[in-house]
From TrEMBL, chains A, B:
GO biological process, alphabetically ordered: negative regulation of DNA-templated transcription; response to antibiotic
Ranges of residues in domain HTH tetR-type: 8-68
GO molecular function: DNA-binding transcription factor activity; transcription cis-regulatory region binding
UniProt keyword annotations, A-Z: DNA-binding, Repressor, Transcription, Transcription regulation
DNA-binding stretch(es), residue numbering of this chain: 31-50
Domain of life: Bacteria
Name of the featured protein: TetR family transcriptional regulator
Lineage: Bacteria, Bacillati, Actinomycetota, Actinomycetes, Micromonosporales
Database matches in InterPro entries: DNA-bd_HTH_TetR-type_CS, Homeodomain-like_sf, HTH-type_TetR-like_transc_reg, HTH_TetR, Repressor_TetR_C, Tet_transcr_reg_TetR, Tet_transcr_reg_TetR-rel_C_sf
Source organism of the structure: Actinoplanes cyaneus
Length: 209, 209
DNA sequence: CGCATAAACTAGCGGCGTAAGTTTTTGCGC
DNA sequence: GCGCAAAAACTTACGCCGCTAGTTTATGCG
């Protein structure tokens, strides 16, 4: 086949297929040949639309952050904005856990990532936080959100009772994977509550830098 | 060369070389052939000592967590123990950032990882926290520590002023990479302070579950 | 109508993890 | 002291991988 009458590929179709593949089978399952097969095409054809594999993965990451709601800062208190944004971000990452390692490396050059940074940082600055404090708070929230999405805490424990025989306090740790969602959700909520309450106290006491 | 009079490889030598390579050039630079070359040996010889590449990487991760000080819980308040442990963990990860993605996936079956979980969880239980709350706090601390180590927040921003022209609040974001260490350190310290202070308040008010 | 461009193809390079089988040395049981 | 299994290196090779180069053909613009 040479050039078809109707293009078989578009950037959108490629990104969509890549996202589906990553969601379903993980980052490692995404290879150029595999992705091409999924799209009914030979491997190297993808290079007509993206220069490298990294560009495709980046586009998937960008599509994911695009789903985060950053309008929440519009007309509400910085505390509430921060909480709603964090929950939205967290929910998006929970829905697409396999792409998180890519996102965790920072906003990079992706427009939506930068727009999100702008929204968060801007809201904190507008509230009266110093530039350095706003930066710290933004970074901190990101640590909590990506950290919780990246390593499901509960999932890290093996489902094998014998493993914990030598650790008296962990004797029920093998039950953790079964409660994965509840544990991870509880830890995230606790962190969000404590962080925002603590920052709120600082703020109310006039400690804004 | 067949079997040499003196073994060329040991598990220790392999792990050490792998750790050095990962520290110096990143996870991607670690390939079986490259590692073998570094050790003056052919690639497949490594399989006489480790069954898979993943086992080698795991051993490196285990060697890194082994450096975290978990004796800090011995005879001090849970607050102080948590703070000292978190700082030690954070310092170790900061010294070996390239292995963090591996650690972030949880304690798994690694003895030192489990010993650390045991120490943290045990200290919280002994202090009177409920099992579920202790789990949440442990998970939460891990989110903060691995999250901060994984994605240097400041490093994620590109060192290119023009990139931020369209984001009014980010107009100085290109300066962030230069202050990388200070930003990341500040955010981590802020998080640690706020979290421990907040949890301490809950504790003092008798809210332990 | 002619031609540059776009979008598919095929072939192939060097690298990857690892399996299989070979050779030689070591060290233990008789 | 000897025989032989196990250990630890080797070579070869398979099927992936990301990506490059060059080819073919349809499209759309001047």
């Amino acid at each position: 086949m040479a050039r078809p009458r109707q293009a078989l590929l578009t950037r959108e179709r490629i990104v969509e297929a890549a996202a589906t593949l990553i969601d379903a089978e993980g980052l490692d399952a995404l290879s150029m040949r595999r992705l091409a097969t999924e799209l009914g095409v030979q491997g190297p054809s993808l290079y007509n639309h993206f220069a490298t594999k990294a560009e495709i993965v980046d586009a998937v990451a960008e599509a994911v952050v695009a789903q985060v709601d950053i309008d929440v800062f519009a007309d509400c208190d910085w505390r509430e904005g921060l909480r709603l944004w964090a929950k939205s971000y967290h929910a998006v990452l929970t829905a697409h856990p396999n792409i998180v390692p890519v996102l965790a490396t920072g906003p990079g050059r992706r427009p939506h990532g930068l727009a999100m940074a702008e929204a968060v940082y801007g809201a904190l600055i507008d509230a009266g936080w110093s530039r350095s404090r706003a930066t710290h708070i933004g970074a901190l929230m990101r640590y909590l959100i990506t950290g919780s999405a990246l390593g499901s805490f509960a999932l890290g424990f093996d489902n094998d009772p014998e493993l914990y025989d030598r650790y008296p306090h962990l004797h029920r740790a093998h039950e953790l994977p079964a409660h994965r969602a509840a544990v991870d959700e509880g830890a995230f909520e606790l962190g969000l509550d404590v962080l925002i309450a603590g920052l709120s106290d600082h703020y109310d006491q006039g400690v804004r830098r």
